[in-house]
Amino acid sequence: NRGQRPPPGAKAPPCDSYGDVNNDGWVSQGDRDMVFSPGLGTFTLEQQRRADVGYYGIVYPLIFVTTVHYYLSGEIDTFPACHLRPSPCNSIGDIDRDGLVTNKDARLVQYDSITNPPLSGEDRRRADVNGDGTIDYADRQLLEDYAGYLTHPYIDTFPACQSAIACPTGYLYNGSTCVPNETPQTLLP
Predict the structure, then answer these.
(1) N or C terminus: which one in the chain shows less Cβ crowding within 10 Å?
(2) pLDDT below 50 — which residues of the chain?
(3) Structural domain spans, the chain
(4) 3-state secondary structure string, the chain?
């Protein structure tokens, strides 16, 4: 099908081949139908990579369908997978240690309370992007805002990067030194 006219309402992939799951050269309703139909587990690794438009390391059919809908309707002009960025400071946000802050990192924060084993000390330091000494929904939201949830990234740094002093997990920077955080850790919903 490559080189032929695009299907109605189709667009070229914004980068690489993200969104073009059926490999016809276009992001279209056909790709949305393919991902949102039964049989996702039978996709090739390449099809799974193309469908991971949010760069989660896993395909979320609803996120794919929603993101592609916004792309085809013109509400967005790219996918989060097209804007991979490194940590803005001290590896903050790069929980999986791949050199990038992505929605895969946000997913690790989301599942921190149920993963086995939970995040390590260094990973917890990296995950505490708001610098409040806890790993919770607020950190996940900031990670998604930095990585770009359904659209372009919303923020360029994290609150934890604002301080020149990086406090260990469980401590907050009060403007002059690191002090113990007395706030109990909140579990994610």
Answers:
(1) C
(2) 184-189
(3) 29-82, 103-180
(4) CCCCCCCCCCECCCCCCCCCCCCCCCECHHHHHHHCCCCHHHCCHHHHHHHCCCCCCCCCHHHHHHHHHHHHHCCCCCCHHHCCECCCCCCCCCCCCCCCECHHHHHHHHCCCCCCCCCCHHHHHHHCCCCCCCCCHHHHHHHHHHHCCCCCCCCCCCHHHCCCCCCCCCEEECCCCEEECCCCCCCCC
Instruction: Tokens for 92, please give them.
Output: 């903050």
| Burial classification of residue 62, based on how many CB atoms lie within 10 Å of its CB (0-12 exposed, 13-18 middle, 19 or more buried) | exposed
pLDDT of 70: 94
Q: What is the pLDDT of residue 41?
A: 63
Residue with tokens 């770009």: 148
Note the pLDDT of residue 83: 86
- What would the two tokens of residue 166 be? 């990086």
Angle between helix axes 137-147 and 103-110 (nearest 10 degrees) is 170
Predicted local distance difference test score (pLDDT) of residue 173: 63
